[in-house]
Amino acid sequence: MTLLNVENLCIDIPGPRGTLHAVRGVSFHVDKGEILCIVGESGCGKSLTSHALLGLSPRVAQVEAAAFSFDGTDLRRLSERQWQGLRGQRLSMIFQDPMTSLNPSFTIGALLIEVYRRHHPGPRGKARARAIEILRKVGISNAEERLDQYPHQLSGGLRQRVMIAMGLICGPDLLIADEPTTALDVNIQLQILRLLQDLKRDMGLGMVFVTHDLGLVARFADRVAVMYAGRIVETAPVAELFARPCHPYTRALINCIPAPGKTRPGAALGAIPGVVPSLVGPQAGCAFRDRCAHATPLCQTRLERRHDGAGHAYECHYTPEETAA
Ligand SMILES: Nc1ncnc2c1ncn2[C@@H]1O[C@H](COP(=O)(O)OP(=O)(O)O)[C@@H](O)[C@H]1O
Ligand SMILES: [Mg+2]
After folding, report:
1. pLDDT above 70 covers what percent of the chain?
2. φ/ψ of residue 207, rounded to 5
3. Is 205 inside any structural domain?
4. Which domain covers residue 151, as residue numbers?
5. What confidence category does residue 98 fall into, taking pLDDT thresholds of 50, 70 and 90?
6. Rounded mean pLDDT, 238-257
7. Would residue 110 count as lying in a domain?
């Protein structure tokens, strides 16, 4: 069952030097119990896209879409009040940095209870019981004691678990996570990912998981959307993407994943030469062309989208055989 459907989402931000076309016609969907990873370098529009899914676009942004729906509700028509009813309740978000997103002057209990009661007015005792239940669910064992602690009394990994608990306390159908593990060390990162996978399985949660780390995508995603300069340049089920990456940008990203034993000592870690082009003003052709070894004059003027009819699509004039190194 499709939970979220987005077609041709465009986000423009007017500026002094012209309009920034930050998100340029992206389409994707998320099914119940499915993890869609959106991956790409910094500045390619991942955060703007994921925040738009919660009606949290910057005030100056102009957001348009041909379709934008969640479980049958057209999100384009929601008032701010209706957004507030949905957000935190059926659609929720976990952010990158729990230290700035958890209000330091409230206890964990007060924070969790307040989120719950915003959507479920009723006795405080019931909200407290739910807070304990959800803390246990995210793997915090001495949940009752934790309720009385303040965010600064917890380790980074525990704080991120509390963030996840806040996102889950109302039992959402869809969780949007924007680089939620970037600030954590690798072991804690893996623990959190395993936890999210368990929750997906146990609660049938759909997830949009944003990251710049393709290594993490390989372990975690069901489907992947590779974003570059405001467009999804390739999308496929995760195994298919790694088995047959078709867009030169996807292949460049995959080549940047450090492989244990394969990286020569002293060799520079892979980074794609060049920078993401400016998206201010009119745009034409493929935005990756200046960094692509296979670009031809055709790439300056036109885009071509190819798909195999089984969920693998990419935006390049050339097949992977034609662009193989
Ligand atoms: N509030 C804003 N005002 C102006 N420009 C913005 C704003 N938010 C994002 N941008 C610009 O939009 C582009 C995409 O940003 P973002 O979605 O944050 O990228 P990512 O999350 O992939 O790193 C960047 O060029 C960024 O500078
Ligand atoms: Mg971002």
Report:
1. 94
2. -145, 135
3. yes
4. 98-169
5. low
6. 93
7. yes
Q: What is the mean pLDDT of residues 232-248?
A: 97
Taking residues 153-167, report their average pLDDT.
89
What distance in Å separates the CA atoms of residue 276 and residue 278, rounded to the nearest whole number?
A: 7
Q: Provide the 10 A C-beta neighbour count for residue 43.
A: 14
Say if 15 falls within a structural domain. yes
In 3-state terms the chain splits into helix, strand, coil percentages (rounded to 5) of 35, 25, 40
Within a domain: 138: yes
Q: Atom 20, ligand 1: which residue's CA is nearest?
A: 43
Confidence of residue 125 (pLDDT cuts 50, 70, 90): very high
Q: Please, what is the average pLDDT of the chain?
A: 90
The residue contributing the CA closest to ligand 1 atom 7 is 58
Same structural domain, 179 and 67? yes
**Average pLDDT for residues 125-140, to the nearest whole number?**
93
Quote the ligand 2 centre to 268 CA distance (angstroms): 25
Q: What is the CATH number of the domain that holds 59?
A: 3.40.50.300
Answer yes or no: is pLDDT of 174 > 80.
Answer: yes
The total domain count for the chain is 2
Q: Which atom of ligand 1 is nearest to the CA of 41?
A: 22
Centroid of ligand 1 to alpha carbon of 43 (angstroms)? 6
Identify each DSSP E strand in 162-263 by its residue range: 174-178, 206-211, 223-228, 231-237
Asked if 41 and 212 count as a contact pair (C-beta separation under 8 A), the reply is yes
Per-residue pLDDT tens over the stretch 277-309: 999 998 999 999 999 999 999 999 989 999 998
Q: In ligand 1, which atom is closest to the CA atom of 23?
A: 14
Residues 133 and 180 in one domain: no
One domain, residues 13 and 148: no
81 and 181: one domain? yes
Neighbour count for residue 283 (Cβ, 10 Å): 16
203, 229, 258: which is the final residue of a domain?
Answer: 258
Whose Cα sits closest to atom 9 in ligand 1?
A: 48
Residue 260: the pLDDT is 62
